[in-house]
Amino acid sequence: MDKNFGMDNLKQGSGIMANMMKKECKKTDWSNSFSPLVIFRKEECNLLFSQSPEDYSIKFSLFTPDGEIELLSGQKWKNYYNSMLVFKENGKDYLFGYSNKANRWFISELSFDWNGQTEVKSGTGFGKSYDSIIHFTENGKNFLFAHSNADKSWFMSELTTNWNSQNRIKEGKWARFYKVLLPFKENGKNYLFAHSGTDNRWFVSELSTQWNGQSEIGNGKWARFYPATAPFTKGGKNYAYFHSEKDKRWFIQELLPKSAGQPEIKNGNNDRFYESVTVFNEKDNNYLIAQSSNGKKCVFQKIF
Q1: Which tens digit of pLDDT belongs to each residue from 155-194?
Q2: Distance separating alpha carbons of residues 104 and 144, to the nearest angstrom
Q3: Which residue, among 194, 211, 216, 209, has the nearest Cα to 147 in the 3D structure?
Q4: What are 254-304's pLDDT values in tens digits?
Q5: CA distance 114 to 112
Q6: CA–CA dist 234, 281 (Å, integer)
Q7: Which end of the chain is more exposed for a tag (fewer CB within 10 A), N or C?
Q8: Cα(139)–Cα(247) distance, rounded to whole angstroms?
Q9: Contacts of 156-159 spanning 24+ positions with Cβ under 8 A
Q10: How many whole angstroms separate alpha carbon 269 and alpha carbon 4?
Q11: pTM score, two decimals?
């Protein structure tokens, strides 16, 4: 694909967009495993960014209900970044990446013309592995919540393009490691859904810069651990896709502050475990992108 294929050509409804979709959309398996799958919306387009833990190559693509258009491919980074998220500042989109292996973080501006290399800021990591990192907003500001598998500690910090990784608003330690952290917003308040593989425990708590890390609105235990998860919205409501390696089961459930006993909206069993998953919204429909490291199989389908 032309590396200079710009924003004007990508807007929905343009003749060039329609022609490109006919030629270059694809629903094929990827050559490498990619994780995590970071989806974000820009100028009415759904964009996906990811990196391969195998050869450190990166993927930057546009997704529509018809498939994928690669905007940037073939590049490789020196390090693998196991945690990545997108945040917005002054109308611009930024990518935050953290590498456990290299003990390094970076911030880069994301645009349709991004070259995959330019960094706004970078620095030394946190001195330990942080396997779960999420982003939430409060009073118009961006915040980072990071949780470590090494000693079960967590911390919050305001996230900006001038971030120095040192200023921590809150920090603490949990009894378990919660691999799954899903932030969601209900009636103007932020909430956190957390799920642990230690004993399949989950909890829901209000998430704010005043949170002490301990108070819970609801909690419980499931029969399985669901490490592959993807939050999404539909009709103003919050939902999540959950997928387990055990018997390859999946289900969709509404995320609510009091999530105990919520019925499963859909469920089933896949042919294999898809450890990398994300969901994007298009015209009030929700589409799942999922990849299995087993054979690199990639699934792309409407789920809700």
Answers
A1: 999 999 998 887 899 999 999 999 999 999 999 999 999 9
A2: 16
A3: 194
A4: 999 986 667 899 999 999 999 999 999 998 899 999 999 887 888 889 998
A5: 6
A6: 8
A7: N
A8: 42
A9: 156/209, 159/87, 159/96, 159/135
A10: 42
A11: 0.89
